[in-house]
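I hope you will forgive my troubling you with a question about protein structure. Could you please explain, in whatever detail you think fit, how the C-alpha cells follow from the sequence? Thank you for your consideration; the sequence and its C-alpha cells are set out here.
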Amino acid sequence: VRSGASLSVDELDDILTLRAVLEVGAARAAASRALSAAERENLNARLVELRSAAAADYRRLDSRLHLTIAELSGSPSLVS
C-alpha cells in the first residue's frame, strides 16, 4: 500500500478481499484447534484490551488481537 496516497477503488477492493480471506481463515483455523488454558487466557486478554481501548490505542491493540489469532491458528506462515 502506498503511504500517504489515496487508493483506487480496485486497490481498496483488493485489500479488503485479502483481509477478509486471511482474517476469517485465521479465525476459523484458531477456532478449530483445542487451545490450551494459556492460549485462551491470552486471547481473552487481547479482547478485553481492545474493548476498553482509547481511540489512540485502538489500531495498535486491534493489530495485536489479529496477530494473536494468527498465532493461535498454528500456521507460522500466517503469522509472518
